[in-house]
Structure formats: C-alpha cells, structure tokens
Sequence to fold (134 residues):
Amino acid sequence: MTTVIRVAWLVLGGVGFAACSDADTPSSPVTSGVATGAVCPPSSSLTYENWGLDFFGRYCLRCHSMALGSGERNGAPSGYNWDDLNSVRAHASNIDLMAAASEHVVNHEMPPGEPVPVTSERRKLGEWLACGAP
Fold:
C-alpha cells in the first residue's frame, strides 16, 4: 500500500511553514490556531465511549496525561491533560484550535509527532467537539 504525502506551505508573518498531511487532505488550508467552525450534524453518533476515548488514547495521551512526569510530556503544559471527558470538555476550544478540522479549516498543530490523525479523523474531532463532546 502506498501512502501519499502532500506538503502545504503556510505563510504566517512573512515566514513559510511546511505542514505534512495525509492522502485524505482536503482543499481547505492547513492551519494552526484557527477555530474550525465545525457544526454538529443532527445525525452525529460520535460519543466519548465509541469514538473520543480511542482518539485521545491514540494521539493525545502520550503527552497530555496526568500519569506522565514533567520530563515525559514532550513540552505539554501540566494543566492540559485529556485523561477524562471533563478535562477534554474544559479545553474543547483549545483542542479545536490545535487539532480539529471542518470543511473549511484543518488544524495540524497537534500532535507534534507520529502517529498523527488523518484529516477525516480531525473532522470527526471537530464534529464531536461541536456536538458538546458527548
């Protein structure tokens, strides 16, 4: 199976940044720190139990966990832990800005290293957050 990697250039303050993405790359710009504007579709079935728990376990808890010591967090601030649903909900807007996507925005700031979610997973994150992280 061949993986296609595309590179998108962002210009922020006159400085170019490259961001790698997956074959699932949308036509929307790859960004960081932009609210996605994702909406909660009435048909959404995403919950913490059937989707969020696995997503955060695969991509976030290697840095954002209370179980990690300061030297194990790869620079993640100590108050930013996604070990449980309440902590995720408390920081939902920050998570949206750093890792989520919508039809028009794809934030790729987090996670900083492999493995990273593909764009369709980032869109599900945006949807799930827009639905109130049920």
The chain has one domain: 31-130. The chain has a mean pLDDT of 83. The chain is about 30% helix and 15% strand. Residues 55 and 121 are 8 Å apart (CA to CA).
